[in-house]
Every structure is written in structure tokens, then in C-alpha cells.
Amino acid sequence: MDRVPKIRVRDLKKAFGDKVVLDGVNLDVWPEESVVVIGGSGVGKSVLIKCIIGILSPDEGTIEIDGRPITGLDAREMDNVRKRFGMLFQYAALFDSLKVWENVGFAHIQHSKMKEEQIRDISEEKLRMVGLPGIQDLMPSELSGGMRKRVGLARAIAIEPEIIFYDEPTTGLDPIRADTINDLIIELREELGVASITITHDMVSAYKIADRIAMLYRGKIISEGTPDEIRGSDNPYVQQFIHGKSQGPITDELGE
Amino acid sequence: MPNERSHSSINPLLALEWMGRRSLVYIEETGQGVILLSKVLRGILKRPFPIRLTMQQMEEIGFRSLPVVLITAVFTGAVLALQTYSGFKRFGAEGLVGTVVALSMTRELGPVLASIMVAGRVGSAMAAELGTMRVTEQIDALITLATDPVHYLVVPRFVASFIMLPFLVIFADLIGIIGGYVVAVSILGTSSTTYVNRTLQYLEFNDITVGLIKAAVFGMIIALVGCHMGFYTSGGAEGVGRATTRAVVGASILILISNYFLTALMF
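Output (C-alpha cells, whole complex):
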């Protein structure tokens, strides 16, 4: 393939003190592709996303967006790159002090000269896309967990990003609400044509929304493939994880 | 006593290690604080300036702190009058009560006590709010929305605190002097004209302005420490609690220490 990947991560390393979290991660995400990164709690899935989006700076390695390296950009250049990203946080991370429409329209309020009316219209349109019309003037504290996530999603797509990051999009939701979120993620990709990286340990969700699944373990991607390939993988680590067994190589190594 | 000795003879190295580790923490925090300060100062120059957020903070820090500051000031002025009177009466200088109250309030007690009250009220709120935003990833969310969290969160608080503290102190000075007046005139029987004359005779404009400069510096300390503690919070709800406490204690101590040096420098 001589196409340029939307995101290319090479030899990414990140440690906190003595604790090595990412130990040479390689990952490509192609245009309009949905990549799901699976892995246990604390293997550094969130750290990977935070490095790409520039919340954390990696110790080593490169990250390219559309073939352009973004590691080492200054703050303003990085902000311009971020305007092409959207991110859904695990607990939505809505701004408590702002109304729903101000949350959804936050990037427009900060970065454009649009009138309040216009921003409200955009925010209403995005809220309708996630199935929550008419809640513009509520405060985040008045919303349920599932609604917060959908508002978070509306905020993530408000500036029409090219890449969306989903941090545990279904965690903490009941199976039906979780599936609604899965459907939304698929819909958004079809409608907006965005590439995405999702991190999750919910395999039902992973199989449903992924074009490709990559498993992160001990700071490296140890296996990647289509959902079917992952399902049929003979890698014992992958097998233990996707079937959620308490016995296997992962727990054996933890025990040592 | 024997207990204490045996304790220290067992663990002199441990005690040393503890002190060393604490010192490292303080040095690291001072460094972080200086870095944050430089980011804030650069952030103030960055356009567009967050006017609306700053106004909100000015209301919170200035207007809403007024009751607490005024109550503190009126009773401080009042007790100063009582104490000075009973001391000065011994050598027949009761007439100078007004002077002492006015000088103490404007030069020291107005700025210091008002700032410590505001540190308790506002510094803690800043640490709690920013700390909660940190642990619930709202600060990360700001970054992903291409918004500099220092510019959006810290600059308005810093500027508002810097501007409003001197205003609060003007009121504190005034109310403190009135508190002293009420006690001296209506309880201790000093004549009203003596009190007013002695106050105006010895109080210099400089006493007031130097107190206000102090207040502005203390305002910066309150906001910087409060925001710093909040900004670098980790460890969930417990971490937020810890950050809040440390914001108040840290700001109060820094206010008292810097007060000495500011006094030594300016008077």
C-alpha cells in the first residue's frame, strides 16, 4: 500500500518514573478505518491515545498525521492539529459549569467568531445526530451517564474532526445503552467518513465497531487483525483476553 | 523524654531521609510553581484575553469575599483599640489609640488578614474546582478542544485575584478603622475629635499604598498556589481534598513569609 495512513505511530515509548508503559508501539490507522485497541486495565491504552493527541509527550518514537510528524510541534501548531481531532472521554469529561450547548459548541465558542445563535444551531444539529434533541439548556449534572456520553460524543464531532478517539465508549453503561453507543460510532463513521481509534476492553463492542483490532500488552502491540482474525488467533494471550479467562499466560505473568 | 531519645537513636538516618525527601518535594513544587507563573504571565499577553471569565472570577473573589473580609476587619480594628488602650493608658498615651489602629490596619493587618481569609475562601475553591477538573479529565478535554488550560482557567483567576485583593483591603482598612473608632469612642470614652485627628495626623498616604501593593502580591500568591495545587492534583476525590488543604496552608504561609520581606523592603 502506498497510501498515506491517517495516523502512523512508530516505536512509541513512554515511561512514568521507572514504570515503562509504552515500550515501542507501532500502529497505523488508514483513512475511514476504525481501529480498536484492546488490552487489560493499566496496559497503557489511554496513555497511547493521550500521546497521539498531545496531552502527554512521548519519550521516544514518532507520530505522524497524514504523513506529517506531530511530535515536537510547538503549542500553536499542535492546537491546529487538534482541531482535526475529536475525543470522547471515558466519563465524558463534560464541563460542569457550562450548559449542554456550551459544552457541545465549546470549540466554536473558543475558536470562531460565530454568533451565539449559530453555535446553538450547530450544537442542536450535533445533539440530534446523537439522539438528544432539545436538551441544550440543561446542565451536565442533570444528565444520566448514557446521556453524558452522547453529549460528549456530540462535542467530539462538533468541529467535524477527521479523526475521533474513543476512550472506553461503552464502559459503565448497561448493554442496551452500550449498543446504542456502538451504533452511533458506526453511524458517525459512515456519515462523516472519519478514522477512529477506540480503546476498550469490551469485546462485544470491539467486534462490532472494529475494522481492525490490535491488542496492547506490556507496552507493545502483540497481535493485530480483523475481528475474525483476532477471534481465530492462536496467540494464547489474545485467547485469554478475548474470552475473559482468569487462567492463562497473562495472569501467570502477573503472578510472578 | 527517654522515649524520645530512644526513638531518635534508632532512626536518625530515617529522619534525615524523611527530611531530604520533604525538601525535594518542596523544591520540585517551587519549580513547578515558577513554571506555572511564567506560563500565566505569558498567557496574560496572549489574545484574546478571557475577559468574561475574568469578570466572573472578580465577582467571586471580590464581591463575594466582602462579608468575610469585613467581619474580620471590624473585629480586628475593635480588638486593636481595646488592647492598645489598656497598654497605652499605663503611660498616659490613650490619645494615640487611633493612630495605632490606623497604622496597624493599613500597613499590616488589613492586607495580611484579608488575604488569609481570601486564601481560605477562594484559594481552596480554586484548588477544589481545578482539582476536580483534573481528576475527571476536564482539563484533558480542554486540551483536546485546542484550548490552553492555563489561559482558560488560571489566567482569569490570577488576574482577578491580583485586581480584587487591593480593593478588598481598602474596605478592610476602612472598616477596621471604623471598628477601632466605635470601641474607642463609645466604649472607652476617647473623644471623637481626638481619635479622628490623631488618625489623620499620623497616617501617611504611603502607609495605605504600601498595604495595597502587598495585597496585590498576596492576591497573586493565593491564585497561583490555589491553581497550582488544583492543576497538579492526582488520586481522585482524596487527592482533591489534599490539594484544597495544601492550597490554604501553602498560600497562608507564603503570605506571612513574603509579608515580612515586603515590609523590610518597602518601609
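Chain B touches chain A through 14 residues (CB under 8 Å).
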